[in-house]
Amino acid sequence: MALTFFRYSAVDPESRPIDVKQVRSEYDFIVVGGGSAGAVVANRLSENPSWTVLLLEAGGDETEISDVPSLAGYLQLSDLDWKYKTAPSPEESPYCLAMNGDRCFWPRGKVLGGSSVLNAMIYILHYFKKSEDNRNPYLANTTYHSQGGYLTVQESPWRSPLALAFVKGGEELGYEMRDINGEKQTGFMIAQGTIRRGSRCSTAKAFLRPIRLRKNLHISMYSQVTKILMGRPKSDDPRPRAIGVRYMRDGVYRTVRAKKEVVLSAGAIKFQTVSVAMDYIINERGPLTSLGGVEGVAFVNTKYADKSGLLPDIQFHFAPSSVNSDGGEQIRKVLNLRDAVYNTMYKPLVEAETWTILPLLLRPLSKGWVRLKNANPMSYPIIEPNYFTHKEDVLTLIEGIRIALNLSDTKAFQRFNSRPLLTQMPGCRKFPFDTDPYWECALRHFTFTIYHPVGTCKMGPAHDPTAVVDPRLRVHGVTGLRVVDGSIMPAIVSGNPNGPIIMIGEKGSDLIKEDWGYV
């Protein structure tokens, strides 16, 4: 810990953002939430020196632990996490049955940089070029990437031998090794991530630290917004308008007014040996630079995918580790895994070498809800993800599991004597192993997402009763209020959404500038 802190303080060239405890009574723009989109919006709006911008963030700054890529799992359930949980599932379509209380954790970043501080840093999809500073020459010199932006993107400087086996195994199955942030998405690749010199490159580090001395930008941390203040309509516009916010800091409620707009970017909701630590601190490499443990990414097609082969329906995250790899210290906790499940399936493997493929559903048909629990802004919402309400989602994931099993059987993995875990999931032993009913039961027990909720403030036309914002991200029926974050997506993107949410921050900032005559 001391060595990591030394590196964090000595090597990072940019100082921490300044936490302004005394804010002005009024700003041109108030940005609520300093996460993947909010940090971008605050940066871009404050490029106009004649505008004043206040960024309000409920959490504090990043820590020396959050800076270490491979320790992403240790940030969940910490003070940097909102610690959300799903509601128990309905009997007719159960999920999360292997978790304590039948509830899955939904970690979200309560920190400057938001969930870009907690995520596995995987970078997927390409508008993106405006933000990107790609530091892998073979990628940066293509038309689908760029250099010189605020956000550093590159491969981890360290990987296990299994990472190459993952890519080679994919080729044996007929998939190309390619840049899946390029022209085509289907294929296998070594993971690209938002890291810089072996450390996490969050949006706070990328977009806020370099501009920390701008006089027209104030950042107030530990400031939780509780209410949007509404004012009288203008004489020429009968709609109510947002004129400011109410927020709590240090146990005291405060108000601040916005002359132009309020921008909501609050979100849609074991290696630490000394030698490894020294390699990380001195050489900026080694296992600690691993992207949250993820070394490979692939996009594959099940039999349910579009027949063109260009619209994959399953994404793989490959990791040379598993739930057992830390001896049950942290991974089982962040999964909220029941003792009976861990002790049966993973505890016997504590001394074994294991690897994992997570098949992820790219185009789910099942949709959930986030509802207010009550009128208290401090109360956590009720999260009902409604996983597996559509049978096709289950069937697609089962096909993804079978492709993963086929990958294990390739020559590339058989060099390592790879074989699947045959221990059956508690609660599913009545079904024969490797049958569709068994895998459906296993999915409904060990329900696992990679925490990418979107769509709670859907963009759409005014005549759509489910739409919240218009194509310029303005809230329908209100003036002076926009939403700029992943919640505006009408549907989830087919890949890790951190890059697209940063893009939304870039595009939303441009829309605001255009509407206020600053181009």
From TrEMBL:
What Gene3D superfamilies does UniProt report for this protein, alphabetically?
A: FAD/NAD(P)-binding domain, Glucose Oxidase, domain 3
Name its co-factor(s).
Answer: FAD
Q: Where is the Glucose-methanol-choline oxidoreductase C-terminal domain?
A: 364-505
Q: Which InterPro entries match?
A: FAD/NAD-bd_sf, GMC_OxRdtase, GMC_OxRdtase_N, GMC_OxRtase_C
Q: Where is the Glucose-methanol-choline oxidoreductase N-terminal domain?
A: 27-270
What does the similarity note say? Belongs to the GMC oxidoreductase family.
> What is the name listed in the Swiss-Prot or TrEMBL entry for this protein?
Glucose dehydrogenase [FAD, quinone]
